[in-house]
Amino acid sequence: MTTETIEQFHQRVINDAGAAVRGLTVALGERLGLYRALLGAGPLTIDQVAERADVHPRYSREWLHAQVAADYVAYDPEADTFELTATQAAVLADQDSPTYAAAFFTALKALYATEDQLVEAYRTGGGVGWAAHHASLDSGMGSYFLPGYRANLVQRWLPALDGVTDRLAAGGRVADIGCGPGHATLLIAQAFPNAVVHGYDYSEEAIGQARENARAAGLADRVLFEVATADGIPGGDYDLITFFNVMHDLGDPETAARQVLGALAPDGVWMIVEPNAHAAVSDNVSPAGRMFMGLSAVMCLPVAAAEQGPYALGNHAGEETLGVIAKDAGFTRWRRAAESAVSAVYEARP
Ligand SMILES: C[S@@+](CC[C@H](N)C(=O)[O-])C[C@H]1O[C@@H](n2cnc3c(N)ncnc32)[C@H](O)[C@@H]1O
Question: What is the pLDDT of residues 252-280, one digit of tens each?
């Protein structure tokens, strides 16, 4: 229970209101390359930032002032110059950093734009499907997850699954279901050049982005991306089937789990990556927990509800519920194989 005074709580909510507005300035900073213009450049004037990012100087000034007020950019009032500290750069400007977070904010326009549909869904119990969102949801959410996948997937999560890396190194078959823009799919393909890697998603927009990302990574001829739903997985004999932050989005995860069972090779592995959130809400009071609870209320639950299946889990159903779904579908083995602050990695086997 909070011990804050009304004034303290009021200030905190005002602070959050400022953050909600600032989110748009972060999206602009990411899309216009404003943070990248500051990266490694030392102190810059308003005009220098404007020139480097190719934006109007008047807007450069206003954007920089918003960043300084948020302590997202360092300011020297004597010289009227702006600079990114190494810490700020690692989170807002360096796209290769494991803590890079600016790209997530580009998904906000997709989320905020569904407000009217959410009002309707909240009244009726209906849903707002993934495809009802602006395309920036695919790219923005994909970018949100990417640093975590880059830091963990090949180094920690795949080796934590029994025998999987050996099978992939020897040319195993992989299907990544609900692959979105394909970041995790491509990381697996890059790490295991002999593996046959397929990515499937029901969103045409996501598959378009995934193909584009494959081309950019030079993997277009090795990784097949196709539109398919989780309850109609194409092909079979897969050594590894992966669900990265997808299981809770499905209206019928049990049918999807049965599909996975049928599409796996003997002793193949189903890898399920889910938010590392807990069924008990009081266990989710943390920065990652706040993010997940918010996303569940405006994205994950409505996406699942739109599929009109027997489930609408939200993103914090918890390990026990997910394990029961896998077992009900016919998997006999289930375990938590790895985790990070943000993600829990489960291994299910026939
Ligand atoms: C949170 S995103 C995760 C995307 C990607 N796996 C990643 O981690 O970046 C969930 C994805 O599941 C896809 N999806 C939702 N329901 C689906 C279904 N029934 N069949 C296939 N894909 C689905 C959405 O289109 C979206 O790309």
Answer: 999 999 999 999 999 999 999 999 998 99
